[in-house]
Amino acid sequence: MILILKPNIGTDSREYRRIEEHLKNFQNIETRVHRVQGAEQVLTEIYLIGSTAALSLEEMRSFPGVEHVVRVSEEYRVLGRHKDDNRSNRFTYNGVQFSQGNLNIFAGLCAVDSPESVETMMKALQENEQVCTRMGAYKPRTSPYSFQGHGKNCLPFVFELAGKYGIKVIAMEITHESHINEIREALEKTGNPTGVMLQIGTRNTQNFELLKSVGRQQEFPVLLKRGFGITLDESLHAAEYLASEGNQKVVFGLRGMKTNIGDPHRNMVDFAHIPVVKRLTRMPVCIDPSHSVGGRHRSSDQILDIMHVTAQGVIAGANMILVDFHPDPGVALVDGPQALRLNELPQFLEDVRMVRETYERRVALFSDVNMKSSEA
Ligand code: PEP
Ligand code: MN
Question: Whose Cα sits closest to atom 9 in ligand 1?
């Protein structure tokens, strides 16, 4: 059960103490308090875990400090959608809003290689009015002999260049909890010119200790990629590890599934799961067309498969796009073959804009249909 307290009623209030007193009458009920930063105010949510069947909804609702009570019926307790639960999971980070209702584009380098490619990339983003990007510093590679990313050494120049070109959020994968501090320190040293969304890659979706460390900090939002060889349910539970530790600023990323059935694509594109994740949980959903398709295949209509699957994700309501670009893919140290080129950026953005507009018209169309059928 979740008790959502009235705005600005916190754990130091009389109202909270009354609830606490009442709960002492019930053994086997544990409480966890989450403070959720909404658009305008901080909300306190009390999660009651254990034998909550003994509690009456009516009674809990009648406490003066309680705004709303949700009986948790699904497994994803914090991030899931429950019956009569219309809370959103909207959050703003460094001026950029994330929710199930909008769309952010993170075009950028799969891996940081040189300051020159970072600068050329960021300049192109600014020229195209983009404020988010992706930049990998810590790369999980199949072979220990492959380039592993420049790690913390590249962070100062990446952050400084981000500040120079007005980039507000960089999606950056981490593979170890020590990377959180490295990022925090580099941001502080460079004067916090930008923000970072910590990315947990598909190989680490079930690295529970990493998830707990990332979940314990609330400074950075998190992009959790779906595990490429596990069920959707298992990946959504992984997201709960982040949220149950206290960080609800989580975006869920679809990036394709590992199977030869998807050949010739690198992974089997799974963007049909966007509406499923948005129905089961309150998380914004990201798509990664680059790691799904994995190459610059082009169809008889001359449109790249990467652009086709991006459109398929956007038409289904995706909220974030993570996509590889490179100023000179031939020299990229990671994933050059799947990178889009900078002269393709305006086209890519226009394609996304057209499809998003159509998605919004679809939402309006079906909201009219629902209204008419409920009136009938
Ligand atoms: C990436 O985005 O750079 C990446 C390695 O993705 P994934 O974890 O989905 O393979
Ligand atoms: Mn990659």
Answer: 202
